[in-house]
């Protein structure tokens, strides 16, 4: 007869490689894996045996104090449910298996046929809550040190499985095993042979400039203070999903303090812990925050607007649209787009195939609204451009304010010349009535947009004081000699074409040569197909204007257009937005220095959604976490 018990052990890992090899060779030794108890204590389970069984049981326990690492996903990366019915609002398809891929395809097709009213009713921000019941990747308890139940408790199941959970798994392993048996281990100690799963060069003994690093950072060595400080802690990995339909400021407050999910059918309450609660659980006062895409805006609002700066030891931003992206504004007038029919189908399924379908959701969802180009996008240069048939610029906006000239403008070139597109399901009207708010839905949209831009202004060049940023800017190209022969091996890369995106929104039309910019502004909208084609009444004649819809570099001879607004990036975030984080660090990036950013990594080769799976990003993430821990613990952050 036997039973099991939990062992709270203080037995450390072997101090030396020789000791580890000696232990590994002992046939009678049974090693018990550890997991983490609810209070952060390492525990192991052992089976009691008869007295005749004298075998040795060892518990290799990690005695290092914890610094929690918390991952915040991008827009549409969190699972959402209706708080009133518990029905799924947003469960994006997982394409990581045959069956899930088929289900995902069917989901995309069905989404394409949803009307504007159906979309608006489905994506109402008010009843939406984060759903912790999502599917998990296969959890290898021996590898991670905890089981699926613990992964759910840590919030992993609030994030889209395909996009993020493999990254959480990688972080848990790579951050917690920089050393094994007294020697550097894994990606810290050696590079890969092919540059597919990890970088060709190890984190140790490699200068950060090899992976796009700028700033005051040197190569880490086994004996460096930075690596020693990093290796003296362990890093339990958590995730926090958030309601991306609501304001990022409100999401930031919930990310700091946590929320409850009430399952009315199961009659259970699941706690989605916030940063402060996670810190208390780990008996520490600060956490490392790693973000992807719009999660960076949530973290910045937490630090800058919500009093959370003191709860964060350091931040690593990946693929952040630091000053917004023009594609958001473009979709207000044309709906979703794509490089290919398949990509167009997916984007139109997600974002709407035309302006009414996109506006019905985006004009009420403040989180996505905050992705619009910010006041300092492209350092304040115009990005909404009207050109004539010969490609000559005739109207450049914004001249002074994107808010007044584009976002809330009722002119033909504004985001919303037709207020009838607002609130197709009546959810905004009902909200205003329930709250006793006077005014029209159109007035509410304008006021909301002004509030959104106010938050954007508050974020200008403002970051948590110990921040590291990583972003993509085009494809990796192997170095070549004078004869064009490749001289060095490089990591994997997406194609240059797949990493282009909208840096500007270009409208081109048959505009008469003698029409002035003021006359063009005063033109009347005669027809709008809601897919990027307009007919304007200018001087009594009809002028057709179309938005540029091909994501490729311009061909001046073919297109009669020197600048079609397409620039390098990561396929979603234009380089102009991402590199704003590197102001003051990367030479040539215009604008005042970004406060709080310690290092910036301008990188190549990866797309937006899966940026954290690329070897360059992973190298920079490990390096940045090590630097952040050292600077914070040594009091080097100003």
Task: Describe what you observe in this structure.
By secondary structure, this protein is an alpha/beta fold. Helices cover 29% and strands 19% of the residues. It has a seven-stranded mixed sheet with strand order 12-27-20-17-16-6-13. Strands 19-18-22-25-24-23 form a six-stranded mixed sheet. Strands 1-4-3 form a three-stranded antiparallel sheet, with no helix packed on it. The radius of gyration is 26 Å and the shape is globular. Mean pLDDT is 89; it is low at 1-18 and 20-26.
Average predicted confidence as pLDDT = 89
Per DSSP, the total helix count is 21
Give me the Rg, rounded. 26 Å
Percent helix among the residues? 25-40%
| Strand content range | 15-25%
**What distance separates the N and C termini?**
61 Å
Overall geometry comes to: globular
The biggest sheet, with number of strands, parallel, antiparallel or mixed sense and barrel status, is: 7 strands, mixed
Say how many strands there are.
27
**What strand order characterises the main sheet?**
12-27-20-17-16-6-13
Helix-strand makeup class: alpha/beta
- Low-confidence sequence ranges: 1-18, 20-26
